[in-house]
Specification:
This protein has 789 residues and is an alpha/beta fold. It has three domains: 419 residues, TIM Barrel; 204 residues, Glycoside hydrolase family 3 C-terminal domain (Rossmann fold, 3-Layer(aba) Sandwich), CATH 3.40.50.1700; 109 residues, Sandwich (Immunoglobulin-like). The chain is built from 22 helices and 28 strands. It starts with a helix and ends in a 16-residue tail after the last strand.
């Protein structure tokens, strides 16, 4: 890669943002919106990594750096979990307690510059304020009074705070195909995280969902480069705005740099086999788009790529991230991952050598997270001459700039006034709308929407489980402890009962996630109803605890669904999943299939509203849903994957971008404004979309481009643009897409981007048009012959 790559990805990000802006903004309360405008005003014209680089900031940071001892510098690069400075863990009925002696030792003796996390329980806003104040009080007693930078995983709302607004998980947000909803939900998350006194969020995940076995599939924005880049950039802009020093904003973290989401085995934090060309083609762009939108920090991939642990890779963390992609923010390790260079990856013979390797590779801050060995080893390494102090200064300068930009040197304490709008009605409305727009109708043989008075049987493990609906990272790491869940959240059963009326609802559990309970009782109950609603589910899990062996639907749920389908009653499958489970055998006998993902506190309500037609479904799959557990392909597969196999090797259950509506849409008149363009030109595509049904609906207009022939085997198509539009019954709209030729570049054999002359096809809604990229004119370099004799 070279500077051309940076230009190419930057342009792609700008195109994505034009599409996002066209969707319009969701409303907030007037007061809150006005406060955001005032807070962001100093940087309203640009999305910056931090506050604008000013002589005042640089002068302040350099002056502070000159005063720091080596011990203070290595302390700044150290991040401890709150457990390391606590006396007791919290429970839903007992507050967590800090240990004053441990806290003082960490900050005053070891000069620890950053802390993170909770201890197994979500805190109230008031307790968060107490924790942050206690930490900053000790920091103010230090020699240089450098504030501590606190970070948290607020990945679908500030879920480690009781009473906050929770949102659908990222994979569900991606299913909305609505970047404005992503921006708005992250804006609210940022506000509620700052309201807790925390200025740094370890979000968003920018990894691609290319391996459905992977336990963190649900944290991504899907399998596609363009969709993930667009949604990831929207998340960054929502969290950071134009000024991360605003009391309504936080520093975002792009994770996990790089290639984390495609482990060969599907197991978390295990090895990935990704050739450099594919790494640059698929995994770099979402991070580049986020950086172009101002991303302040990155978190590093815990695993290895082709046997090279990323935490020890100077090639990736300096050569690629810094020198080629131009990132200037803070790079933080993931949990214990420097130690693991010794204990897990076996590339460092000692923990001390692991520290040397990681720091020299480009890590700025070590998420230790329990031990204070890191600053001890780092101190020794500098004094021995194994690491130059100038390398330490480089990381500390980045960390101090981040603290300055966040306004911590001005005021590191929580603002109690901000807690008044936590969990506000306006914020909850955004969460509900996100849930409604994410739910995806995958099959409908005329049974939906249900008529009023329809008698339904509700069964299956997803009907009553709140964790299944919320997913991991909900008040606790794995999300299974419901003691802190909001008492106002409705399970799918409660939402269906409210929608249909108790007299029309019969409930039989049927099965647990992986255990039969009373399937025959459910079969008997089906005889007295009109429609059977089978709620399939997957328990939430994240990271290692979420590792699985295959994608098969658990046998108990498969048996339940098939037994009910055998009754002859219309069966509707509703699936709450954190990754696709193989449903081939039960889908065949179902009359309708509804994908609920992990849609958060309004998932049950959104599904009920869609089942009865109060909401017209508009979600579209952000990934390819596999038909077989051993046939995992992506929509942007190569032409060769369709050859010589009868119907072809690519036979997913449902295609990427697929989703049904209760109305119908017709496409016509796809036109290109030119038949030929140069390598630096733009082709504008327009298409007409009409709502040909009887009710209003939202359609996701998806534009794909295929390169017919190239020096590297091209994919059969690639998403290059999308817009979500609303059409009244009978209404027609014309949708326009600018296609920059440079954005059609691919990574060539030399690992640099290239646009080759040739023919390209544009595909929108079954319409196709073609244009040609012309060969650039040759420039003569010959010396003219001398004239005369």
């Amino acid at each position: 890669m070279n500077g051309t790559v940076r230009t190419h990805f930057s342009r792609r990000a700008r195109i994505a943002w034009r599409a996002a802006a066209a969707l319009g903004a969701l409303g907030a309360t007037a007061t809150h919106a006005a406060a955001q405008r005032r807070a962001d005003a100093p940087e309203a014209t640009r999305a910056a990594t931090s506050a604008a680089v000013t002589p005042e900031r640089d002068q302040f940071v350099e002056g502070l750096l000159r005063q720091m001892t080596l011990e203070e510098k290595v302390g700044e690069m150290t991040q401890l979990t709150i457990q390391a400075v606590s006396r007791t863990e919290g429970t839903p009925t007992r507050e967590h307690e800090l240990d004053p002696a441990k806290l003082e030792d960490a900050i005053l003796r070891y000069h620890v510059g950053s802390m993170l996390n909770v201890w197994d329980v979500a805190f109230t806003p008031q307790h968060w304020h107490q924790v942050i104040r206690s930490i900053q009080d000790v920091a103010r007693r230090s020699r240089l009074k450098i504030p501590v930078l606190y970070g948290i995983d607020a990945v679908h709302g500030n879920h480690y705070m009781v009473g906050g607004t929770l949102f659908p998980q990222n994979i569900a947000l991606a299913a909305t195909w609505n970047p404005e909803l992503v921006r708005r939900s992250n804006e609210i998350t940022a506000y509620e995280t700052r309201a807790a006194g925390i200025p740094w969020n370890f979000s968003p995940v920018l990894d691609l969902a290319r391996q459905p076995l992977w336990s963190r599939f649900f944290e991504t924005f899907g399998e596609d480069v363009y969709l993930t880049s667009t949604m990831g950039a929207a998340a960054v802009r929502g969290q950071q705005g134009g000024n991360i020093g605003s009391p309504l904003r936080v520093a975002a973290t792009g994770k996990h740099f790089l290639g984390y989401s495609m482990p060969l085995s599907g197991k978390d934090r295990s090895t990935a086999w990704i050739p450099d060309r594919q790494l640059y083609e698929f995994f770099v762009p979402s991070f580049q788009a986020a950086m172009d939108s101002g991303l302040a920090t990155v978190m590093i991939n815990s695993g290895d790529i082709n046997g090279e642990p990323v935490h020890a890779s100077h090639r990736i963390l300096t050569g690629l991230l810094r020198e080629r992609m131009g990132f200037q923010g803070v790079a933080v390790s993931d949990w214990e991952d420097i130690i693991k260079l010794h204990t897990q990856h076996h590339v460092a013979p000692t923990q001390k050598e692991a520290v040397r390797m990681a720091v020299m590779a480009g890590v700025d801050m070590s998420m230790v997270p329990y031990s204070l060995d890191f600053p001890k080893y780092l101190l020794e390494l500098v004094r021995e001459g194994s690491i130059p102090e100038s390398r330490i200064d480089l990381s500390v300068r980045r960390i101090l700039r981040l603290k300055y930009d966040l306004g911590l040197f001005r005021d590191a304490y929580p603002d109690a006034r901000l807690t008044r709008n936590i969990g506000s009605a306006a914020s909850q409305a955004v969460s509900r709308r996100a849930a409604e727009e994410s739910v995806t109708l995958l099959k409908n043989d005329g049974v939906l929407p249900l008529a009023r008075g329809t008698r339904v049987l509700v069964t299956g493990p997803g009907a009553t489980s709140l964790p299944v609906m919320h997913g991991a990272w909900t008040h606790t790491w794995q999300g299974m402890n419901t003691a802190m869940y909001s008492r106002t959240t409705k399970s799918p059963l409660q939402a269906v009962t409210e929608e249909a009326g108790a007299a029309n609802v019969t409930f039989v559990p049927g099965s647990e996630i992986a255990k039969e309970i009373d399937i025959q009782a459910a079969v008997r109950a089906a005889q007295g109803v009109d429609v059977v609603l089978v709620f399939l589910g997957e328990n939430p899990s994240a990271e290692g605890p979420g590792d699985i062996e295959d994608l098969s639907l658990p046998e108990a749920q498969r048996t339940l669904a098939q037994a009910l389908e055998a009754t002859g009653k219309p069966v509707v499958l509703v699936m709450f999943e954190n990754r696709p489970q193989i449903v081939r055998e039960v889908e065949a006998g179902a009359r309708a299939v509804v994908m609920g993902y992990e849609t958060g506190p309004y998932g049950g309500t959104a599904v009920a509203d869609i089942l009865w037609g109060d909401v017209n479904p508009s979600g579209r799959l952000p990934f390819t849903y596999p038909r077989y557990t051993g046939s995992l392909v992506h929509y942007d597969n190569l032409w060769s994957e369709k050859v010589g196999q009868g119907e072809g090797m690519v036979r997913p259950q449902w295609e990427f971008g697929y989703g049904l509506s209760y109305t119908t849409f017709a496409y016509s008149g796809l036109r290109l404004d030119r038949a030929q363009a140069g390598p630096n030109g733009t082709v504008t595509a327009t298409v007409t979309v009409q709502n040909t049904g009887r009710r209003a609906g939202q359609e996701v207009v998806q534009l794909y481009v295929r390169d017919l022939y190239a020096s590297i085997a091209p994919p059969n198509r690639r998403l290059r643009g999308f817009q979500k539009i609303t059409l009244a019954a009978g209404e027609t709209k014309t949708v326009t897409f600018p296609i920059r030729v440079q954005d059609l570049a691919f990574i060539g054999m030399d690992n640099t981007p290239v646009v080759e002359p040739g023919d390209f096809e544009v595909l929108v809604g079954g319409q196709m048009a073609r244009f040609t990229v012309a060969q650039p004119p040759m420039t003569s370099t010959a010396v003219p012959a001398a004239g005369g004799s």
